[in-house]
Inverse folding.
């Protein structure tokens, strides 16, 4: 292993952070919109969404934390290679890869939960449609 091996992960991890940060910002915006939309009246659908959003926030925190640790271990691997401590560098790089994979697995779980959030919205829309009718003149 040489210095360029862990260096290859730097752009990938940076892009991953960008994606995670974007997911967090979108989630924060959704929470604000939900708060503004509901005001003082909270419906059952909103309680389900709040539970979903709490889970997603926790998962995003884990995704980011694991990604940061992966990035740090990758940088340490480069440092250890620079000072000719190859075995320590390889171990550090191996743990970096493991943490990166764990971060991606948590991301996959968060994506699954986010699709559930969309299903909750669709269920609420369908329920409103059933209550109000389809809006077409059937006469």
């Amino acid at each position: 292993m040489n210095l360029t091996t862990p260096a290859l992960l730097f752009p990938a991890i940076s892009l991953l952070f960008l994606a995670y940060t974007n997911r967090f910002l979108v989630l924060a915006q959704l929470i604000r919109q939900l708060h503004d939309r509901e005001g003082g009246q909270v419906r059952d659908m909103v309680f389900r969404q709040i539970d979903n959003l709490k889970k997603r926030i926790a998962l995003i925190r884990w995704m980011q934390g694991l990604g940061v640790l992966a990035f740090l271990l990758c940088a340490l691997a480069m440092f250890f290679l620079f000072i000719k401590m190859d075995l320590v560098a390889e171990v550090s790089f191996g743990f970096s890869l493991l943490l990166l994979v764990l971060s991606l697995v948590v991301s996959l779980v968060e994506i699954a939960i986010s699709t559930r959030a969309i299903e909750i919205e669709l269920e609420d829309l369908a329920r409103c449609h059933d209550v109000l009718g389809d809006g077409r003149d059937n006469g």
Notes: The helical segments are 4-7, 9-38, 44-82, 86-132. Residues 4-36+43-132 form one domain. The two ends are 76 Å apart (CA to CA). The mean pLDDT is 82.
